[in-house]
Every structure is written in structure tokens, then in C-alpha cells.
Amino acid sequence: MESLSSSFSKGLKEREKTLEYVISEALQIPQSQVEDDLEYRSISEWDSMGHVNLLISLEEEYGVTIDAHDRSKLLSVRDLRNFLMQAENKDSNTVEIVGNETKGYSEQKQTISRGLVDVILDSTEITYIDGENGLLQYRGYSIHELVNNSTFEETAYLLMFGSLPTSVQLKDFDQELKKARNLPEPIIDLLISMKEARPMDALRTAVSALGNFQENSLKHDSLNNKISLLSQIPIIVAFHNSIRFNRELVMPSEKISHAANLLYMLDGKIPSINVEKVLNKILILHADHGSNASAFTARVVTGTSADIYAALTAAIAAFSGKLHGGAIEEVLTMIKEIGSPDNATMYVKEKQRKNEPVMGFGHRVYKTIDPRAKILRETAQALSEEFNTTIYFEILESLVSAMRPYIKKGVNVNVDYYASLIYQLLGIPQDLFVPIFTIGRIPGWISQIEEQKSKNILIRPKLSYTGIKNQPYRPISDRNHIDSEGF
Ligand SMILES: CC(C)(COP(=O)(O)OP(=O)(O)OC[C@H]1O[C@@H](n2cnc3c(N)ncnc32)[C@H](O)[C@@H]1OP(=O)(O)O)[C@@H](O)C(=O)NCCC(=O)NCCS
């Protein structure tokens, strides 16, 4: 380390600008403040935006590339210095670059991957994602081909059975889906009892309860039950929506498509072909997305040999959070809060100041634009123009401009960004955005549950213990001082 340090110092001397100088310029702070112990977010100038500027300056000054993985580790002046030293010495192989955060733990070293970042859980034959190049394929078929040529029913078949159906297979599948459009009475009663519940909470509870009322309840994972789930989940969402607004239930139709039936049950009107197409497209784009938090949850539950209702209930719970599926609802709140395209820059600054994420941006896997967002942007624009109401679309576009520095660092628009606006344009109530996204995601979860079962293994990572060890137990009478932060 000593020799690296001196070699880097020599490198520094040879440069016109010292590291301290580059940092002080990027963060707009005095050089005297730049010490090794100075940490990201320890001063107001080194906030998220300052960080982006700083990393860009370092890349320009030192000719290094700082990728998303490096970025998460560069959190102090010391980290930056070490990173640049490693970059300088990379060719001579004097430094071992560890691919993950490495923590000292007693005598041994353990590699911790917080948030399971970059951990490959297993192999899959369902969905291919290339996060660097923004590619997404279901069973080898590009989502672009599918949104242009397929239907939700056909895509669900593709995901669940592994190949595109023949016309006879698709007809049979469609018939089965239509036949399954009904709900057991006790589930309707349960929905009535949850009249005041948030739609996503009611959905989670109803799916959990559904397992108790299925005809094939002893064979929970039968094909019939999987097909029923695809048809019943939209009915749960639509019925609960009618119940909470004291409206009569609109019984499902067996004559129209999955997408059209969903919209029909929500407002009693058969949608136009165009609107049906838009919902089809969006449901196709929601249908699967690799081992995201909810699919991973479904796999964890399946890994214990629990049944499909348990796995889907857990997946729905994971999906509801605003960092995952819940973001789609938050995007519309954000659009309303911004109010005008002119306010977008201020909004981003305010978010930076509060150190809060801008909704609809960022993704664990994509380091470029989410390919689903690219498709949905076109749809959102076309629909806004068709409905002659473009203000929300303009706000989104202005926000994209205001987010340029983030986009340069790989924090780009994700699927929720334009999908939120499309749902709003389709007249869907805001708190149904996440349940409807969920309806789209069911084929993906079912397929992943099946794949997990086909080569099952209990999923059980470890934790690295960092607490105190070998404490002597003291009787309560001896504990007369407060030695913990308990209540
Ligand atoms: C989706 C999300 C949770 C991914 O998180 P992640 O992979 O753990 O990435 P991180 O949160 O570590 O982000 C890496 C960096 O990008 C920044 N970033 C990520 N998403 C951001 C966003 N939406 N707005 C502003 N900055 C963001 C982080 O602040 C972090 O910066 P830092 O390195 O200076 O601390 C995150 O991007 C987010 O919260 N997005 C908003 C919610 C959303 O739209 N979710 C739907 C996802 S499909």
C-alpha cells in the first residue's frame, strides 16, 4: 500500500491538478476541506448531484471509467484516492480489485453483496435481460415483436408453456381463461368486508384466501388453478373497485379478451379496439422481468415447498412497495406535484436536496433506458395527442431533460414512468395502477414459480454477523444501568 501511495503521489505531482484540487472544484468547497475522511453526504455540497459532478470530473481528469458498481463504493475521499491508485496500477497487477464489498470479520474475510446486487441466483429459460444494452426477451422473443404482434393471452401462454401456441392451442387456452372468469362467493364476501381497504391490500388478502376455495384445493398447483388465477385476479381488482364506490358489480364477459374484459368490469363499457390494444400492449410489457424483488420472493416461498397461493400472495406483497411496483402510482403523484414543465428543474433540485429518488427513474439492472419505457413513451405521446391533453406528457419530457446528469450516470427512465401516464389517460383510478400492473405480472410469476419447482432448492443466504460475541449473561438484578437502546 505504501508503494502504491507514493506512486500515486508521484503521479499527482506530475499532474497540473491535484486530486484535492479536482475535488474542491467539482464540489465547490475550499481545498483545505478535502481530507481523506471527508465522506459523501457529510457536507451539503457533496450531495447526490455534487457526487455526479465529481465523478464526471474525475473521469475527465484521470481518463478512468467509473461504472455503476464502482460508484456505489466511492463514498469518501479515501475511497476515491484508493480507486484512482488501483486504476493507475491496474496494468502492473499490483492491486487486487475485489468485485464486491469486502468486510473484515474475525479472522476470515467474507464477501457481502448487500441487496444481492450482481448475485446470480440460478439459471432461467424464461426471460432474458441485457441491462447494458437495454434488451428484453421472453422465451427468446423480443418484447418489440410481442407488443406489435401478440396479445396478452398469447404472451401468457408463451411464458407459462415455453413456446408460442398453435392456433388450436391458443383457442383452447383462451376458452379455459374465459370459463374461469368467476369468483367463489366467499371471496366476494371477503371483498365486501374489505370495502375500505387499499386495492393492493385487498388483492393480496383475497389471493391468499382464494387458495381455500378452489375446486382443486388439494392440488393447489394444478394447471387449472394457474389458469383460474390469471382470470380471477382481474375480477378481484374490478369487484373490489365497484364495492368501494358502492357500484353494482359488473359481471365478467366470456365474449371479449382478457384486456377488454378488465376494462369492461371496471366501468361497464366495452372499450374501443384502440384502447384494448393499448392495455394489451402494456400488460404484455408487464408480464415478466427476471428475478426482481417480487419474483425473487415468489421463488423463495416456492423454495420452501409452499404452494402457488402462498408464493403469489408474497409476491404481491413485495410488489406493492414504492421502490418496486408501487412506483407506478407515485409517478402520477409526482407529475401532479410538478404541475408544469417549467417546474421540473426545481423539482429535481429539491429532490436532490432532500436526498430522495425521482420516481420512475433508476433500475437495478438497466444502465441505459429501460426498453419497455421506450415503447411506452411512444404510446403515452400518441394517446396524449389523441385525447388532446398533453400537459402531463410535457412534464415528463421536461423532467427527463432536468435529469440529464443522472441519465449520464445510468439512472434512466424505467417502465413505470410512462406507464403511469398511460393508465391515467385510460381513466384508471390512481390506486388501481399497481393492481393492474400486478394483473400483467401474473404469467411471469406463475412461470417462475414453475421453473423454481422444476429444479427446486431451498433459498437461504447467510448474514455476516457484526455484533458483539461471547457476552456473559447477567441476572436482571445486576443490570442497573442502561446498556442498550431498548424501550
Ligand atoms: C429502483 C431503485 C430502487 C434501484 O435502486 P438500486 O439499484 O439499489 O440503486 P441505488 O439506489 O443504489 O442507486 C444508485 C445511485 O443512483 C441514484 N439514484 C438511483 N435512482 C435514483 C432516482 N430515481 N432518482 C435520483 N437518484 C437515483 C442513487 O441515489 C444512487 O446514487 P449514489 O451512488 O450517489 O448514492 C432506485 O433507482 C429507485 O429508488 N428508483 C425510484 C423508484 C422507482 O422508480 N422504482 C421502480 C423501479 S422499476
Chart the SSEs and their pairings.
Elements: H1 2-14, H2 19-27, H3 48-62, H4 68-71, H5 77-89, E1 101-105, E2 108-112, E3 127-130, E4 135-138, E5 141-142, H6 143-149, H7 152-161, H8 167-179, H9 185-193, H10 199-210, H11 223-244, H12 258-267, H13 273-286, H14 293-303, H15 308-319, H16 327-338, H17 344-354, H18 371-386, H19 391-402, H20 404-408, H21 415-425, H22 433-454
Antiparallel strand pairs: 1-2, 3-4, 4-5
Helix pairs in contact: 1-5, 2-3, 6-13, 7-22, 8-11, 9-11, 10-11, 10-15, 11-12, 11-22, 12-13, 13-22, 14-15, 14-22, 15-22, 16-21, 17-19, 18-21
The structure holds coenzyme A (COA).
EC number: 2.3.3.16
Family: Belongs to the citrate synthase family.
Pfam family, one: Citrate_synt
Structural class: mainly alpha
How far the N terminus sits from the C terminus, by CA atoms, comes to: 45 Å
Count of strand segments: 5
- Do you know the CATH topology of the largest domain? Citrate Synthase, domain 1
Q: Helical element count?
A: 22
The strand order across the widest sheet is 3-4-5
Q: Specify the helix fraction band.
A: 40-55%
Mean pLDDT: 89
Q: Compute the CA-based radius of gyration.
A: 26 Å
Quote the beta fraction. Answer: under 5%
CATH architecture of the largest domain: Orthogonal Bundle
Tertiary shape: globular
Topology order in helix (H) and strand (E) letters:
HHHHHEEEEEHHHHHHHHHHHHHHHHH
Listed once per kind, the bound small molecules are: coenzyme A
Which parts are unreliable, with pLDDT below 50 for 5 consecutive residues or more?
A: 1-13, 91-107
* Count of individual domains: 2
CATH level 1 class label of the largest domain: Mainly Alpha
CATH superfamily of the largest domain: Citrate Synthase, domain 1
Main sheet makeup: 3 strands, antiparallel
